[in-house]
From TrEMBL:
Organism listed in the record: Mesorhizobium abyssinicae
Protein name per the record: Uncharacterized protein
Amino acid sequence: MAERQPISTAPTDGSKVTVYWKDGNGVINESVAQYRDGGWWTYIDSTTQKKVEPSSWRPAASDDDD
């Protein structure tokens, strides 16, 4: 597994990456996200996207189903 890197070094070209972000309860979450429309967006369920403020990232695991 790749090391976490500062979010400032993450690609902002729409690539999917794994990000780490803290929710309103202070819990650190890990999810796949994309940078678009000026921010990081992730799915929080199968149909709902949320803009998050990640602190770090790493390359997303490859998914052969895409």
